[in-house]
Amino acid sequence: MFKGILLGIVLGFVLVFVGAYFYFASGQAPVTTNSPEMPFERKVAKLALHAYLGKVPHANPPVPVDETNLLAGAKVYKENCAVCHGLPGEPHNAIGDGMFPKPPLLFRGVGVTDDETWESYTKVSGGIRMTGMPGFKDRLSDTQMWQVSVLVKNADKLLPSVKAELAPPPGTVAPAAAAAPAKAADSDHDHVH
After folding, report:
1. Which residue has the higher pLDDT, 22 or 169?
2. Which of 45, 99, 120, 192 is deepest in the core (most CB within 10 A)?
């Protein structure tokens, strides 16, 4: 009887593996950013991210939350993050709008101000698989990653000088924010968080 149960379990695993392989190999899995989600895609991504975040050190930022670090974080943000996550008061651009899942607009609504700074640092440093979020560990210094993490943690209470640093460059015309304000607001909470 034990052999029959064991054989049934092994056969079950083999069938699941073969089914998953067929799903991907036959072209059934959605691969474009405008395709519907795969079954359990968002749930699996969140589960993996939260389990990983539970294992990483919950360090306090080594940089103080002051004007100097917020301004430095704003500069890093504009150069590296704004292309996907936008600037204050602006909707997604073509890059952010074409991603799946859409990256959150970090200066609209809650953004990631509800995340702890160490959590944002971990995401900035290592990126997030299955979201398009790149890791910046090899591109930015530790201090720069902490500065931008402190910035997004405090995105809802920025000093006027920091808001000015985050303003779009002079002479640029912001895309029509009225085109899809409800859609942009809805998508802000669709990120893996």
Report:
1. 22
2. 120
Three-state SS for the chain is: CHHHHHHHHHHHHHHHHHHHHHHHHCCCCCCCCCCCCCCCHHHHHHHHHHHHHHHCCCCCCCCCCCHHHHHHHHHHHHHHCHHHHCCCCCCCCHHHHCCCCCCCCCCCCCCCCCCCHHHHHHHHHHCECCCCECCCCCCCCHHHHHHHHHHHHCCCCCCHHHHHHHCCCCCCCCCCHHHCHHHHHHHCCCCCC
Q: Where in the chain is the domain with CATH 1.10.760.10?
A: 41-187
pLDDT per position as a tens digit, 7-51: 889 899 899 888 878 887 888 877 777 788 877 888 888 899 999
CATH 1.10.760.10, domain 41-187, yes or no? yes
Cα–Cα distance between 72 and 80 in angstroms, integer? 12
The pLDDT confidence band at residue 175, using thresholds 50, 70 and 90, is: very low
* Residue 120 neighbours by CB under 8 Å, 6+ apart: 112, 148, 149, 152, 153
Alpha-carbon span 147 to 75, nearest angstrom: 10
- pLDDT tens profile 39-59: 788 888 889 999 999 999 999
